[in-house]
Amino acid sequence: MSKRRNIRKQSVRKTKTRRINKKKLIFVICIFIALIFGISKVAASTSKLIGNIKEAKSQEIQKQKEIEENKQFDLESESSTPLEAKHTVVIDPGHGGDDTGNVGIKSPGDNEAVYEKDLALDISKKVAAVLSNQNDIQVILTRTDDKTLNTSDRAILANSQNADAFISIQMNAETGGNTANGVETYYRQDADPSDKSKQLAETIQNTMKAYVTMKDRGVKQQHIQVLQQTYMPSVVVECGFISNKEERDKLLDNTYQNRLSEGIAQGILSFLDKNSKK
């Protein structure tokens, strides 16, 4: 009899132990599931937070970039009196607005046009950006967006700021052909012997050759209205032929634009150094 009781007691203990083990197992599983769920929630929240931080940082960088690009070149904020700087340089993106300038086509069968006014603005902004890194130079763009601006207004702006140099950035085109290529710089025709426009043209033309591979078409004097109306050394830089596919593709390339702009800017800086007011 005593033996049977012991067997029963052992059986009850085993049953209770199994029940307790099952409860513990269920409890552990529940805890594990809760942990997994919690970790997933935290990971999702962290990922979202990181994404938001990256997006906010990207927006801030873009905003700062826009501020830096515009703060030097906002013409509406410019004074009507000469600006305080050792040198003042006016960069003139040719054409603009209703005046598209020369027109090229990206490739045969492509209906998307390439406008001189757009390339002129892109390159002009890059030239101005390089010059603005110099603490003693005030850079003024005659236009910062796609707007119509007549020749007289460009000259009046440069004259009113008593600028040390005026550089108009333009693109060339061949009439009735598509093989002409190269870069050339024009200076004022029939100028006073003391005029240094030819020196400015030669310095820019020679410096560009060190930065880009291009055909050197030299410097030429020509009666161009905006050059005749300005009082300081003034030139027109023809950056290439958009009627020529190979050259047009170069001018559309951001890396090429950067090198070309650097060459133009360094030519301007070299000219200013040689003719410093001191």
TrEMBL record:
CDD domains: MurNAc-LAA. Residues 155-269 form the MurNAc-LAA domain. GO terms for molecular function: N-acetylmuramoyl-L-alanine amidase activity. One of its GO terms (biological process) is peptidoglycan catabolic process. SMART domains: Ami_3. Keywords: Hydrolase. Pfam families: Amidase_3 (PF01520). Coiled coil: none annotated. One of its GO terms (cellular component) is outer membrane-bounded periplasmic space. InterPro entries: MurNAc-LAA_cat, N-acetylmuramoyl_amidase_3. This is N-acetylmuramoyl-L-alanine amidase. The lineage of its organism: Bacteria, Bacillati, Bacillota, Clostridia, Peptostreptococcales.
